[in-house]
Write a structure and sequence with these properties.
252 residues, 11 helices
């Protein structure tokens, strides 16, 4: 008999098989176009940062932000929809599938989606010659950790709200500022000192710094273990919150 977590994953994959065409542009083509336009186009005017050409410097940032944005975006309407509109989670609850299986199966689905997109992006950037260290092979692991660190709390949030209008606030005041000020496009050190702690509090910044250290073969600003622990804390807190939110929602 298939494990309940695997059954949940299979369910999401079956649904995605019918909808994958709609995500091709945002998951695969858009990051590459963004890389070409900003990394090469704008990079021609920027020059280099820290002795590295702008294309090589921005690649790990775009890679981590792709994982972050996919995780956040996928964990909003889809989760709320399965509670409020299609009631997919209620149907699962009537089976041997438990709360942990629902959350774990969903996060495995997000992880699989992100890893495929990140590997494709990594191959393309490698063809551009933007990877300067063999440690770049560990960036999919970092991107996966970023995805779980972002998807777990957002999944919990989506399971806690009653209306999708809250997602516009999430995108506007969390996802977009995190993308702009987490070191993706310019060093966080260029921000005012009073604002930098907000960047450090974002899981994206930790993912960007780890990916940049891997692709450039340079040490990150914090110890690697510190970055990893911060991401694990986000993931663990999100998992606990998601479990509680799913349990409460399915009891109502």
């Amino acid at each position: 008999m298939v494990h309940p977590t695997v059954a949940v994953l299979e369910r999401h994959l079956c649904l995605y098989r019918r909808l994958w065409r709609a995500s091709v542009f945002s998951s695969f083509i858009l990051p590459v176009l963004f890389l070409v336009s900003i990394g090469i186009g704008v990079g021609g005017y920027v020059g280099g940062i820290g002795g590295v050409d702008y294309l090589s410097w921005i690649v790990p940032g775009v890679l981590a932000s792709t994982a972050f944005q996919m995780a956040v975006g996928e964990s909003t309407y889809s989760v709320l929809g399965d509670f409020k509109w299609t009631r997919g989670y209620h149907a699962m609850r009537a089976t041997p599938v438990g709360i942990r299986d629902m959350v774990a199966g969903w996060l495995l689905y997000i992880l699989l989606r992100v890893e495929i997109a990140v590997v494709v992006f990594l191959v393309v950037t490698g063809l551009f010659g933007a990877l300067r260290s063999p440690w770049a092979v560990v960036t999919p692991l970092v991107a996966g950790l970023v995805a779980v660190a972002a998807a777990a709390p957002v999944t919990a949030f989506a399971a806690s709200v009653e209306h999708d209008s809250y997602f516009a606030l999430l995108f506007r005041f969390v996802m977009i500022p995190s993308t702009l000020f987490a070191g993706v496009f310019f060093p966080v050190e260029q921000l005012p000192e009073a604002v930098r702690p907000l960047a450090y509090a974002s899981p994206l910044w930790h993912g960007v710094e780890l990916c940049r250290a891997a692709t450039l073969g340079a040490a990150p600003p914090w110890p690697v273990a510190a970055h990893v622990v911060c991401l694990l804390v986000f993931a663990a807190a999100g998992l606990v919150w998601a479990g509680a939110a799913f349990r409460k929602r399915l009891q109502d």
